[in-house]
Amino acid sequence: MMRPPGLVVALRRAALLVVLSAVSLVALAAIVLPAVAGGTARTVETGSMRPHYPPGTLVITRPVAAQDIRPGDVIAYQLRSGEPTVVTHRVVRRVRGADGAPRFITRGDANAAPDPDLVRGVQLRGRLWYAVPWIGWVAAGVDGPWRSVAVQVLVVGLLGYAARMYVSAARERGQDRRRGRRDAVDPPLSAYPEGRAAGAPAAARAEGDPRV
Length: 212
Fold this sequence. Notes:
- The protein is of the alpha+beta class.
- It has one domain (about 5-160): Ribbon (Umud Fragment, subunit A).
- It is built from 3 helices and 7 strands; from the N terminus they run αβββββββαα.
- The chain has helices at about 5-35, 135-140, 145-185; strands at about 40-45, 60, 75-80, 85-95, 100-105, 120, 125-130.
- Strand 3 and strand 4 (about 85-95) form a beta hairpin.
- It starts with a helix and ends in a 27-residue tail after the last helix.
């Protein structure tokens, strides 16, 4: 059974709306907001922060001063100062070093024991702002600086697909409007009783018909 053309168009419009909404949210969360607010996107690659931030989660952090960090905050920090490896764990305790500067004891949410080394302020790379599940899988599959590029390529691809759907739906709407105008000017024969178009002469009477 074939669906009426109007129903098909309505379904496509609904699908277009869903796709555009999803793409807009992803683009806003993964690209626009971090760029505007000075945030950094990183991908959770291990299960140490389950269940809140499982592998594949894209976490967005913003710079923060060490004195503003409190227990319960999720922070990104260099495993060793000056090295590229960054860990995202939760602060479970704040202590003060011999120099008076704060130090932090951290632990992964899924880990039973705290991390072995104290985190110093110089190691901090940011505090968690928000997280986006699953999107980080794209970045996790790409090494080095190409991670952020991969996320952007994904979003641009989705935007292109959404634009294609929008153009297709607009073209179909235009065709429906033109078809409607043609039907109004020259309605089909089936629109009239006995298949006779309006204004057409009556059928010729049979020969010998006594009516005048």
